[in-house]
Specification:
It is a single chain. The protein has one domain. β2 (69-70) and β3 form a beta hairpin. The protein is mainly α. It has seven helices and six strands, in the order ααβββααααβββα. The strands form three sheets. The protein has a two-stranded antiparallel ribbon with strand order 1-4. A two-stranded antiparallel ribbon has the order 2-3. Strands 5-6 form a two-stranded antiparallel ribbon. The chain has helices at 4-19, 31-54, 75-98, 105-124, 130-148, 155-173, 201-225, and strands at residues 58-60, 69-70, 73-74, 183-185, 194-195, 198-199.
Length: 226
């Protein structure tokens, strides 16, 4: 199906759009900040993506693409870096409302140790590649930024909840329901164990993308509210 990747991306957007006008969360009022943060954070990710695609560290199966490219990336992949963070920021806003009476200090402290522990686990699994190393670096930088913004206490919870749709969408992209994966990975650039069909590195990649967007989103929200 040529439109499979696009359907997955647009399907991810459907929920946040439909619920944006909920009287409690009112996410529609935050669309400006959410979209702007997505666009800004997308820039380094698109450069990273294009660089690795060019060197065949990963790639895309044309069987599931519309065939429209920007630079050397499918249109669907470009949209991924805008729509997925937008949807995850919606999760963050929902957490802010429904968990507003919880401090979450204990969860956050555990999370600060969990990310480095997970990263070290990847290195202990044996052979690893440039993708493994790159997510080690990016996740470390974002974790430091997250700790420096410890007052944003919903980041950990929102990211953990975002892993649920992440596993569904990324699982489909990496071949859990299709004969061939939509997105393939060079086995020499990742550790050999996977989470179902998902490279283990993708957890840290998702953490870097999602949390960076949430932090920038909060900063933009504060700036626009002045």
């Amino acid at each position: 199906m040529k439109s499979l990747y696009l359907i997955l991306i647009l399907g991810t957007l459907a929920g946040p759009l439909a619920l944006s006008f909920d009287k409690n969360v009112r996410y529609f009022k935050s669309w400006k900040s959410a979209l702007l943060s997505s666009l800004i954070i997308a820039v380094p990710f698109l450069i990273w993506d294009a660089f690795f695609t060019e060197r065949l560290f990963w790639g895309f199966n044309e069987e599931y693409l519309l065939g429209i490219y920007l630079f050397n990336l499918p249109l669907e992949e470009v949209l991924f870096f805008i729509i997925i963070p937008f949807a995850c920021t919606f999760i963050y806003e929902v957490c802010k409302y429904f968990f507003r009476s919880y401090s979450l200090k204990g969860l956050n402290k555990m999370f600060y140790f969990a990310i480095p522990l997970y990263a070290l686990t990847l290195l202990s699994l044996g052979d690893f590649g440039y993708y493994t190393i790159s997510v080690q670096i990016s996740s470390t930088l974002i974790l430091v930024w997250m700790i420096l913004n410890a007052e944003l206490r919903y980041l950990s919870l929102a990211f953990l909840i975002s892993l649920i749709p992440f596993i569904v969408v990324n699982g489909i992209l990496t071949g859990s329901l299709t004969e061939n994966p939509v997105v393939w990975y060079n086995e020499a650039q990742i550790v050999s164990p996977r989470i179902l069909t998902i490279p283990m590195e993708d957890i840290l990649y998702s953490f870097t993308l999602v949390v960076a967007n949430m932090i920038l989103f909060e900063k933009l929200q504060r700036r626009f509210s002045k």
